[in-house]
Each structure stands twice: as C-alpha cells, then as structure tokens.
Write a sequence for this structure.
C-alpha cells in the first residue's frame, strides 16, 4: 500500500502543478518512455522506485492529452472484469492442469464474457430533472 499511496499522492501533485493543460500530443514518446521505464526498473531497486513514484505518474498524466481511441475504451472496459476474475479463473485452470497459455486465454475470455453480460446491458441512469425556477425558490 505505501508504494501505491505514494504514487497516488505524486499524481495529485502533478495534477496540481499541470492541471488540465495538455502536455503534448506525442503518443510515441509516451510509449517509448513507458518502455524505457520498464527496462530501467530492472537495473536496481532505486531506479525501480524512481520509475514507480515519478515517471509512471508523469507518463499517465501525459497520456491524458491523447484523443480517446476505441481500442483504449474497450481495454478500459475490460480492465476491471479482468482484475476481478483473473485469480479465480487462473486457479480454476490450474486445478484442471491447464498450461499458462490456456490459463491466460481462459481468464481473458471470462473477463470478456463478464463485460458483455453485465457492462453492455447496463442502462445509463437518467439525469434527475432540473428544478424549475419557481420550485427552487419555494424549497
């Protein structure tokens, strides 16, 4: 929890400094920076800590200035069902002696099924009706 909490707090600080201002529109640079951080994090624990606490929040912040791509929206919709179902799915696959590749495929298909069954059928809630000026004054 301390590592996640500190990254969260650093994200808040970055937002306070930069606000909603775009940090550029260079997706290739953000992807390259992310890949460099993944590689650099293997060098030693201090570099890993710097990547997790400083560079990861900056990369996330920089990616907010990109336009929304349909694949990103789909991946975002799958992220929570995958998070919520991957451990039981992997344990079930392991119980039946499945290889890691089949376990991964099973967990992914289960997340897709959960998303399709629950998320796509959910209807957005209607916004509450606005109060008329007369109703607001009498309330």
């Amino acid at each position: 929890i301390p590592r996640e909490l500190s990254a969260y707090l650093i994200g808040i600080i970055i937002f306070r400094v930069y606000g909603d201002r775009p940090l550029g529109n260079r997706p290739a640079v953000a992807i390259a920076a992310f890949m460099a951080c993944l590689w650099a994090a293997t060098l030693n624990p201090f570099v890993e800590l710097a990547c997790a606490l400083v560079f990861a929040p900056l990369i996330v912040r920089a990616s907010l200035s990109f336009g929304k791509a349909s694949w990103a929206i789909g991946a975002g919709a799958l992220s929570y069902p995958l998070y919520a179902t991957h451990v039981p799915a992997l344990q079930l696959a392991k119980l039946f002696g499945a290889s890691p590749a089949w376990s991964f495929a099973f967990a992914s298909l289960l997340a897709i099924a959960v998303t399709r069954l629950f998320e796509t059928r959910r209807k957005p809630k209607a916004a509450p009706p606005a109060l008329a000026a007369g109703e607001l004054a009498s309330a």
Summary: The chain has a mean pLDDT of 73.
